[in-house]
Amino acid sequence: MTAALVHLLREKLGDLSPRTGIILGSGLGALVGELQDVVRIAYGELPGFPVSGVSGHAGELVAGTLGGTPVVMLSGRVHYYEKGDANAMRIPIEVLAGLGVEQLILTNSAGSLRQDLPPGSVMQISDHINYSGMNPLIGVDSDRRFVGMTTAYDADLARAMHNAAAKCEIELGQGVYMWFSGPSFETPAEIRMARVLGADAVGMSTVPEVILARFFGLRVAAASVITNYGAGMTGGELSHEETKDMAPIGGARLAAILKEMIAGGGANR
To answer: All domains of the chain, ordered by start, with CATH?
Structure first.
């Protein structure tokens, strides 16, 4: 199936040969509008691609050039909590690797555990904690499943992201992302635990995609758009509506950073 999808997409993309892929989380849709020579393909037209049922996730593959640099974007993702499948994004990521993508930039919306990372800010992910315990490589019948994660987040890509943020004069935080399975939000006790364990932000995605990307040999960078503080930090209740309302604010900042990073060639070094 994967080989057939790669062949189909190569026909649709023509001469476009992107080395950089991006998975867009909530609030990053504006980045799609920056592309030139755009090719759009709905996930539903790609056999095996998972279609998300989460509002705010478009569900389409979009390719084009950004500042003259070819790039392919997955606009929307399927989360573990939708069907209890940590392997949900395997086919899209395997297809990107088959197309010749070498580096994958992942984005998400997340809850902050630090007062100096308020809603609307952006945090570059330096490492993660897989608190859910789920893993997309469970069941792989090969020693390839023992993927090293010591350098899961590529240092050169992280440096390029920080340099791009500096050029854009946008403050870019850095921290550890903890993956909870969702879909319910964390409790105040879980947030206190996460802080003790060294997390700086919490969310319901990205970690299985990082594992899959490394499994397929891709270099990885990731960033979170902060949409709220963790449960118990403000006294208010959390909601998906708050996430959708706040995501475009930080999303515009992260989009500017990624545009500079890719158009400036930093993602291809």
So the answer is: 2-268 (3.40.50.1580)
